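User: Just a sanity check before I run the rest of the batch. Below are the C-alpha cells for the first item. I only need the designed sequence back.
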C-alpha cells in the first residue's frame, strides 16, 4: 500500500515535495512510509509523462469542446486545468489499483523466498 501511495503522488504536481507528501500520505493510510518514499522516488523521472497523461486522459474522457460550451468556463487555462484535475483523479485511481494488485500479488507469491533472503543476510550483533 505504501509503495502504491508513493507511486500515485507522481500524478500530482507537488513541485519537488512529492516524496515527503508520499511519506505523510503513507502514514495517514497506516501503511509503510519507507515504501511510500521508495515508490515516489522510483518514477520521479516520469513526472512529465504523468503530467501529459493527466491532460490526455482528461481530454479523452471529457472533451474540451464540451467544457468550452459551458457558461463561465470560456477561459482556456481554466478548461485545461479542469481537464488536468479530472485526468489526474482517473489516473490515480486506475494506476493505483493496478499497481496495488501487481505489488500485492508479487509479494504474496515470493514472500517466503524474500523472507529467507532477509533472514540469511541479517546479522544481529550481540552487545
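Assistant: Here's the designed sequence for the first item:
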Amino acid at each position: 500500500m505504501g509503495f502504491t501511495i508513493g507511486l500515485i503522488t507522481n500524478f500530482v504536481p507537488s513541485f519537488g515535495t512529492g516524496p515527503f507528501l508520499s511519506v505523510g500520505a503513507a502514514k495517514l493510510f497506516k501503511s509503510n512510509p519507507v515504501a511510500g518514499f521508495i515508490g515516489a522516488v522510483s518514477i520521479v523521472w516520469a513526472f512529465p509523462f504523468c503530467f501529459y497523461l493527466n491532460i490526455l486522459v482528461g481530454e479523452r474522457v471529457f472533451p474540451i469542446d464540451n467544457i468550452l460550451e459551458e457558461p463561465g468556463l470560456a477561459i482556456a487555462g481554466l478548461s485545461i486545468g479542469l481537464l488536468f484535475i479530472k485526468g489526474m483523479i482517473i489516473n490515480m485511481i486506475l494506476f493505483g489499483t493496478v499497481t496495488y494488485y501487481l505489488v500485492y500479488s508479487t509479494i504474496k507469491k515470493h514472500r517466503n523466498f524474500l523472507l529467507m533472503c532477509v533472514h540469511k543476510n541479517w546479522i544481529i550483533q550481540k552487545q
